[in-house]
Amino acid sequence: MRAASLAALLLAASFAVAQPAPPTVGARGKPAEDGCTRCHAVLEDERLNAPALAAGHDIHHAVGVGCAGCHGGDPTSDDPEVAMDPKRGFAGSFGAQAIPDLCARCHSDPGFMLPYAPNIPTSQREQYRTSRHGKALEKGDLKVAVCTSCHGIHGMYPVKDPRAKVYPTRLVETCARCHADKALMSGYGISGDEVAQYRSSVHHEALTRKNDLSAPTCKTCHGAHGATPPGLTSVTDVCGTCHSTQREGFDASPHRDAFQSMGEPACEACHGNHAITHPEDRWLGVGEGSVCGRCHSEGDVQAKVADELRGAVTGAAARLDGARARVGAASRAGMLMDEAEVKLDEGNEALVVARVEIHTVSPAVVSKSTSKALDASAAAEKLTAEAEAELRYRRGGLFAALAIIALAAAALVAKIRQLES
Amino acid sequence: MPRHRHSWAYYFGGATLFFFGVQVVTGILLLLYYRPTAEAAFESVQFIMTRVRFGWLIRSVHSWAANLMVLAAFVHMFSVYFMGSYAKPRELTWWTGCLLLLLSMAFGFSGYLLPWNEVAFFATRVGTDMVAKVPLAGGWLLQFQRGGEEVTGATLTRFFGFHVAVLPMLTTAFIGLHLLFIQRQGMHVPPSLEADAKRRPPIRFVPNFMLREAVVWLAGLAVLVLLAAFFPWELGNKADPFAPAPSGIKPEWYFLFMFEALKALPGTIGGFEGEKLGLLVFALAGIAWFLVPVLDRGSIRGKRGRAPIVVGVLVVLYIAATTLLSLFGVL
After folding, report:
1. Most buried of the four, A295, A319, A377, B45, by CB within 10 Å?
2. Alpha-carbon span B117 to B243, nearest angstrom
3. Mutual angle of helices B118-131 and B153-161, in 10-degree steps
4. Distance from B220 to chain A by nearest Cα, in Å?
5. How close B93 comes to chain A (CA, Å)?
6. Considering the entire predicted model, what is its pTM?
7. Which residues pair with B269 in a beta bridge?
8. Cα B216 to Cα A409: distance, rounded to the nearest angstrom
């Protein structure tokens, strides 16, 4: 990823494409100090001073790759005529079409990249060539994304820096700059709603509310440099990279071949794509709100299986909820319910497994886990019943104690009256 | 025992003694299982409440009786104050009584921390912080209380020591003195009730008054059992010194009248630190209250003026209002 940043910063070079000479770099690992930033920083025109002012936090400058690394020229001279002399390799600014190759001069050269970042991939240029963006660029479409569109131009941060435009929490916004623009997207047959849909998804929720940086963003499913929509049949593989247990279940199910023969995207059929919401038990069966009912209808054999699955999961969930409520009430009444809570946790675990096993669409497999959940609920209920009995015993004891106290008090009052009469 | 229309006031000292007795008995029972370290205190109280037979009852009764003891002591003190019973020659009874009230508040403060739960931990941190405001010796007093810079396991051990050894010893000694003075000087009858008392025959202490007091004690026991069974004292969550303080931390109700006033004071008043000034005012007011047998010149001459009554009413109104408003979440 760091290579990607570097590639993007080496921004300016149609010239370089024409003349693949090694870029001008300073001492490795030392911030680049040159005449370019010295002069440009004090220029009044913002267009000209901004790149120099941004050099202070730029990853390329930080490791010794200065302005001339991309723009050419002589950075040692304070004379603008000399520094920006085309005879000294000065190339000026670059068009979009030139940028991928300009960045690739370093970022596709493993030998060059090795001293800076030994583990960085150097295949970004090749991947880009296979992407929708790269293919369109080759056809002369200058509106598509190139390296700098996502990574920025001057003042580029390393990919792992939270300020970087491609950092997980900022990446969606970066893609949205083009992909949420409906007018721009209409030219490519894309609706432009995808980002808004993603923002309503569980993945976005995990990223933004739970601060889970490993939660999927656009690039997790579409790829970064080779960005392309996953093919219909590859959706299962894409989702399965994270949801491996669900995928295993699905692969063992009759759905796998059925979807393949229909050429339908498997996971997407029930879960959607960008707007993936929390799955619910009511999706099972063929009744209202079900997803099985989209393909199966009441009365057929598969519908029976779907209803059976729904019954098993919702039954176990309801029993567990009921047990949880009773345990909570006993706990609030002052009883220690830790053993019952362990049982509830066990039940919840079994229910989670059952919900994952739904992907096998096998009632025999699912009912094994739901039975475990039911057993755990029953164990929690038994412990709660004991606690409730203990509570009743305490209350009973209280009334007995109060009766004895009242009798004693009455006897004392009678004695006092007798003494004082 | 004199008999008049305010004879009821004579029972509250005994009620306080009853709750103290309950505290001693239940406290000893709790000692059988309680472990005074930061690592084990919370778990040991949890163990008492859930695994020890009748442990829940003993712990709940101990907590409730502590509160009822302080309440009974306050009622006793104010009834003594309004009847002017502190007047010469009973100054020593008043003074030992005042010290006993302070001791019972110290019991409450030190016992509050012992379960080592979240609320108690942070309330103790705030409470012990106040001591640091004392001029000159503040820093030393803070260290002495906490056994270090912060509230830690060392503070818990220290509070435990005070709670089960130092305070009971002092309290027993002062109760002995308090009762000795009462025994030597007899019960006081306010001048305004003397005529009433003369009209009615006095109550013999043994057995009549003792039997009546026993009825009061039985009523106290019934209240305790009811509270312990229907409102079991909660344990809360274990204290975590590294967690941020939860919102709405408050001390026990009998410190609220001071806590709310100090909280409401501005940061600085006329160049002085607000909280420090507030503590100074409370300290002076406490000393004045303590010295009332000397300050109330009228009571020395046998003729009590209106001023002490007005002051007493204002004090009761202030304490009752701030405590209730704080308990109901208005303040």
Report:
1. A377
2. 12
3. 80
4. 10
5. 29
6. 0.65
7. B272
8. 9
